[in-house]
Structure formats: structure tokens, C-alpha cells
């Protein structure tokens, strides 16, 4: 039988707050891929600064499929990938880059049986929709292409073969949008008779929703969609802030719930689309990736932490006994 002093030490250890860095995944934007230098460096820097392990989740072949694979299919693939990653089983954070936010939110709202998502950190996400072709803008050729796309944007063919059509929202054609657009109306719970309380419950369960908008963003039209801001139904004017949209006031997805609880961070940074400085990454992203405060007892009861518990207890006792081995930091499993 263990001496009373030993039991007291073990019990006290169980109540000590320990550092536990949740892993994070990165979902890249359109025309990009996980192996591209920018995405690789972005992920590695955040891992280094936060002390948490990051994984870029690739869907299909990356760049081509980001354009041509419908968003529900992309979400389904991402869902299966996160469910099969044992490293994420105790929870994880999502960083979405542009269109990657559609997949990230799809994982949160639609993915049955997936591990819990703690924080969603969104960079230039088209959350409320877009009113112009991505990577184009207001040049004459873009306006012409935009007009051509609008003629058939809600057709089954484009919805099944052009990913951005899944969040293309023409303010002056809302009935056709709700009828033909296959992704965003469901993601944002916009269809009156099809609103799903489970989607709202899952999205509202986030601990933090970090919405980063780029001041000089000319890719997203309007750029305020990064904050869930958009045009009113039936008009391109005025541009409404998130808090004045029906999605917010009627709380279709739990955005209002999160905001009133102080869990939504509206952040505006200098730069064009996805052009973020290292200092802004450290200031606005890293704090939401850093250590989570858990007690040793809580760690012991999580799904995959039994071996971490044994290792931590052993190292703690060695440290108490002034052994020379260094005590390792508790971190996610690689």
C-alpha cells in the first residue's frame, strides 16, 4: 500500500493545471495545394510559434479539385480525413484560408461523428457569399465573365463542376439562389423549411470564432463577407454589417449566440487577399492555437491520453525526486 505522503503527492498532481496544445488543421484556398511553399511555410511557422502540431488537409489533387469538385464532396472527403486522424481525437482547431473556410464550416456543421472543433480561425472566408467571380474583380473582362456566369450559375452543371458557384449569392436573384445554389444556403441555414437546429448547435459550440478581414481584399466581393457582412436581399446597396443581416438577427447558425457570449473576434488587417504579415499571424492567430489549460485528471480521462498520463506522472515524480532527466512538455501526439 502506498504511503500517505505518496498518495497526497499523486492527488495534488492530479489537480495541477498542465499545458496541452491541441493540434490544428489548415484548409487552403482555391487554386492552392498543401505542397505549395506558401501554405507549407504558413503551417510550419504557426506550429513553431504555438507549439502545436499543424496538418494541412489536402482534398483530391489540390488546385484543380479546389475549382471543380462540388463543396459537399470536398467537405465529405475532409470529414473522413479528420475522423481517421487519431491525432485529432481529443479536439482540434481549424484554420481556413479563403474558400477553405467553406470546407471548415462544413466539417463543423455537417460532419457526423467527427472530433470536436474548438476554434475556427478564418482568413478571408466568403461566409455570407460572393457577388463576383473569385480572383477577378471589376475589370471589363471580369464584368463580362461575371455576366455570363450569372446566366447559368445556379444550373446543376455549374453547381456540380464549379466549386465557387456553391457560395455565389446574387442579391437581386435570391429565389433562384435559394432554389439552385447547393451549398451556402444549407451551410447558413437560409432555407426556411429546411433549417437544421443541429447545424446551429454545432457551430454555436465553438469556443472562439476568429474572423480576419483583409483591408485591401479585392478578390472577395464584398470583402465584408469575411465578417458575415453582405448586401440585403433584392439590392446591392447598402452593404450591411453582420449584425444587421437576417442570418445574425434571427440567429440561423448561432453567430449571434457566439457574438453575445464574446466568442467572435472581428479582426481587420492591412493587406490584400490572404496577404498577412508574420506579426499579424503572431498577434491574431497564435493565441488561439496555444496551450489549453487542463488538469492531469482531465487529461487522464480523455480518449487517447492514457499513455501521456503515465509518461507525465513518471516525469513528474522523477522531477520531484530531483532526477537529472529533463521533464518534457506535454504536447499533442505526432
UniProtKB/TrEMBL annotation:
Residues annotated as signal peptide: 1-21
Listed Gene3D superfamilies: alpha/beta hydrolase
Name of the molecule in the record: Palmitoyl-protein thioesterase 1
Keywords tagged on the record: Hydrolase, Signal
Organism: Citrus clementina (Clementine)
Record bears the keyword Glycoprotein: no
One Pfam family recorded for the sequence: Palm_thioest
Any one GO molecular-function label of the UniProt entry: thiolester hydrolase activity
Amino acid at each position: 500500500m502506498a504511503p500517505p505522503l505518496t498518495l497526497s503527492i499523486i492527488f495534488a498532481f492530479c489537480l495541477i493545471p498542465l499545458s496541452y496544445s491541441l493540434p490544428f488543421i489548415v484548409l487552403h484556398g482555391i487554386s492552392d495545394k498543401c505542397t505549395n511553399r506558401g501554405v507549407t511555410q504558413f503551417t510550419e511557422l504557426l506550429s513553431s510559434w504555438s507549439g502545436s502540431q499543424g496538418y494541412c488537409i489536402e482534398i483530391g489533387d489540390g488546385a484543380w479539385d479546389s475549382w471543380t469538385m462540388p463543396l459537399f464532396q470536398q467537405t465529405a472527403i475532409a470529414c473522413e480525413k479528420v475522423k481517421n486522424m487519431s491525432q485529432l481525437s481529443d479536439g482540434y482547431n481549424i484554420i481556413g484560408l479563403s474558400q477553405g473556410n467553406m470546407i471548415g464550416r462544413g466539417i463543423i456543421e455537417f460532419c457526423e461523428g467527427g472530433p470536436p472543433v474548438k476554434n475556427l480561425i478564418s482568413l478571408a472566408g466568403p461566409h455570407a457569399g460572393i457577388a463576383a467571380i473569385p480572383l477577378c474583380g471589376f475589370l471589363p473582362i471580369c464584368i463580362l465573365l461575371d455576366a455570363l456566369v450569372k446566366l447559368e450559375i445556379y444550373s446543376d452543371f455549374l453547381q456540380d463542376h464549379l466549386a465557387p458557384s456553391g457560395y455565389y449569392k446574387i442579391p437581386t436573384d435570391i429565389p433562384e439562389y435559394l432554389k439552385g445554389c447547393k451549398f451556402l444556403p444549407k451551410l447558413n441555414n437560409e432555407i426556411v423549411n429546411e433549417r437544421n437546429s443541429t447545424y446551429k448547435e454545432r457551430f454555436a459550440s465553438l469556443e472562439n470564432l476568429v474572423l480576419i478581414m483583409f483591408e485591401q481584399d479585392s478578390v472577395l466581393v464584398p470583402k465584408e463577407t469575411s465578417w458575415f457582412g453582405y448586401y440585403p436581399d433584392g439590392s446591392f446597396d447598402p452593404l450591411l454589417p453582420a449584425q444587421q443581416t437576417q442570418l445574425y438577427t434571427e440567429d440561423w447558425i448561432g453567430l449571434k449566440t457566439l457574438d453575445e457570449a464574446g466568442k467572435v473576434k472581428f479582426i481587420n488587417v492591412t493587406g490584400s487577399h490572404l496577404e498577412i504579415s508574420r506579426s499579424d499571424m503572431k498577434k491574431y492567430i497564435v493565441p488561439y492555437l496555444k496551450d489549453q489549460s487542463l488538469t492531469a485528471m482531465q487529461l487522464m480521462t480523455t480518449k487517447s491520453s492514457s499513455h501521456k498520463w503515465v509518461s507525465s506522472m513518471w516525469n513528474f515524480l522523477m522531477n520531484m525526486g530531483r532526477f537529472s532527466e529533463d521533464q518534457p512538455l506535454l504536447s499533442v501526439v505526432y
